[in-house]
Amino acid sequence: MTNVQDHDVAGQDVASPALLIVLPQGLNVSGVTLWGVRLANELSARGWRCGLLLHGEPAGQERLELPIAREVRVFDHPELPAAGGAMCDAEVLHGVYAQAADAMWAGGPVIVSANLHGEVYGAAAALTRSHGVRLVGWQHSDIAYDTRVLSHYAEALHAVVAVSQTIEQRLLSVIPAHSDRVVRVPYGIEIPEAKARSPIAKRPLRLVYTGRLEHSQKRVLALPAMSRLLDERGVEHELVLVGDGPAREDVERELERTPSARMVGACEPIGVQKWLRWADALALGSRYEGLSISMLEALAAGCPVLLTRTASGASEAIEDGVSGLIAEVAPEADEQAAAAALADTVVRYLKHGEAALSASARQVAAERYGVRSHVDRVERMLAETVREPARVWPSDRPVGFAAGGGSVPSDAAERLEQALARLVRMGVAMERVAIHGAGAHTTACVEVIQRHGVAMIVDDDRGRWGSRIAGMSIVSPTEAIEKGVHAIVVSSHLHEKSIASAWGERAAGVAVHCLYQSEIQAA
């Protein structure tokens, strides 16, 4: 990878517009990270002035060595926390972002591509006031949080980009006043040369997973469980998990009792391609996606995809029995249900015939998701953005997402009070109750939590473990279980469903209480 200090913009047109892509999880294992780097490289090859603003990687995750073109300007800020953790508020981020915007400006408009986190959008919205930047937003995943962020900042956005048709329709229904700015731009990937695989009949079936090792979205522990079920059925196979993420240690523990599976850790793109050429099929157990980069890369490599059904993305790229096979299991289902459905789908794959699926997978990728088509669409959107007058975030509204009420409903404290009071009436001791969530929602409700004497705060972010909120310790889910927690109250509005579902996979007998949907009892 080219070093940060080696990047310059020598010889570029000083009056040309510039694109600054914010990657608030640094260079971690993530489809969004790969998309951002590749887009910057491709656009710079077409003469655009491009920059990447990098936060630090999530705690416990290694930085990938990704190829970044010399023409791309890199602003590396490892001191900035990653999205998903204890993110700085927008006012703090604004100063760092402003320096990057100043450096990118060369007489033409600076377009900022915000991604993944509300405070990133808030800092970019502040730049519309201070630096006159144009702001574009992307919804990469089909989740309520992303939709809420984009609708919150819609006034300042020149374009609201959906990566799938499902997301596009949802955005059109949520921000009808700004429907003219909603545009669908599917991801694009390189299409490698076709490579023949040896017949499965002469060896074990080869399955691979590539991507983040994570619970709430990727439901990654379903994959080792699937492997064990295949062993029980006498299906000879090898499963290789390629990636990194917050569930890495949990995966390692599961693999100790999964003889046909192993993990190789994070790989650079060339390494991922090697594993996709090796594999007969990609296994993907996600609860939700936008348009999975891992899925598209597998299709391009002629590696059919065996995946659980999601509302968005999968059905647009995968036609069951043509370019892959879809396991019929509900997104909210636990890992065991997903594992059973995936194991059934593997058996169906062996009966189906891999050659036809492989050829169809490559054809779908080439016809719908080539990188050239993707960059063409992005370039048209950016050109239109440059032609438009600047949009400015209203001066009387806070720039921060949390400060502006974007993520915390007005009745959050009241709902939490009712939930904790109900637990008291049920006779549950508060030292056996934990609040899951160390973000803005919990901060807004901290007085209620303290008044009831809740013992601990649980969070999935490793970077928060060991710290405190108003004197209450922040611990990992594993530590909470070890301490004998009996009940979890989910302190989140936008991530409530995925947090509750993940607890259903962690421990039997732990009751999970939600504030905004029906109470869920862990199996």
Q: What do these coordinates show?
A:
The structure is a single chain. This protein has 523 residues and is of the alpha/beta class. Helices cover 37% and strands 17% of the residues. It has 18 helices and 20 strands. The protein has helices at residues 31-45, 90-104, 118-130, 144-152, 165-174, 222-232, 248-255, 269-278, 293-300, 314-317, 335-352, 354-368, 371-387, 412-425, 440-444, 446-452, 477-482, 496-506; strands spanning 18-23, 49-54, 73-76, 110-114, 134-139, 157-162, 182-184, 205-212, 237-244, 261-265, 281-284, 305-308, 324-327, 433-436, 456-458, 468-469, 472-475, 487-490, 511-513, 520-521. The strands form three sheets. Strands 3-2-1-4-5-6-7 form a seven-stranded parallel beta sheet, with helices on both faces. Helix 2 (90-104) crosses helix 3 (118-130). The longest helix is centred in the middle third of the chain and has 18 residues, at 335-352. The radius of gyration is 23 Å and the shape is globular. It starts with 17 loop residues before the first strand and ends with a strand.
